[in-house]
Amino acid sequence: MQIGSSNDSEAVKAQYAVPKGLDTRLTFHEKYSVNKQGYGEWLVSHYNFRDGINVLEIGSGTGSIWIGHENILSVCGKYIFTDLSEGMLETAKKNIGEHDNIEYRIADIQCLPFMDESFDVVIANSMLYHVPDIKKGLQEVRRVLKKGGEFYCTTFGEQNFTDKLAEWFKLGGEDFKPNHNFTMQNGKEILSRSFEEIKSVLYEDSLHVTETEDLVEYLLSLSSFKAVIDLPVQKIRDILKEHTVDGAIDLPKEYGMFICR
Hints:
The chain is of the alpha/beta class. It has helices at about 10-15, 20-30, 40-45, 70-75, 85-95, 135-145, 160-170, 185-190, 210-220, 225-230, 235-240, and strands spanning about 55-60, 80-85, 100-105, 120-125, 145-155, 200-205, 205-210, 250, 255-260. Strand 4 (about 120-125), helix 6 (about 135-145) and strand 5 form a beta-alpha-beta unit.
């Protein structure tokens, strides 16, 4: 999950360099999301895996969505988890384990180290908006994907909780530059340059936060939301308190998936 203020590459690297900050954000969403199916469970439910297929996951992070789904991974002929962060891959390996059909490799979507038409399925969850050259990245996905293969990618929408928080903290201009490089609103048009068939699916959800300190910790884990991080912690608490109703803070969420063939 990404708060999407700045798309500065150094901020992105800092935010995703180690698993701790990402774990904070994932735990927060798991605890306070209204939709109790869970985003990870929802993602996995949409994947069409067949026996013996080869799967590439780009920007796989800690691989947490696959915990408890080893039976799905086991049907794959090969499943390759990739990320730019060695720390993320090490955590993914701990979460998922070492199996004969699973590999963990550092890779950049803009220059994938794989042969043409190597994979039946390619997955890119919540990461395309970070790619400096999305066009090149999608061309690489198309290159390594077999004819008739499927590309699953997820992202956020432009009416997300980040925009609401920016409003509350009176952020604008240089303090809040939302990353709209690839969203549920513009993603289909971007994908259409590389894929003929594109289906979008929305994940219905929102946040109902009953412990303000957890939201404070979440905000402090986001290096790209620097204008808030620089505030005194008590100031952050005071602003959030202004938007607490009946002991809870409610925030919108807008996430979804594109399925490309």
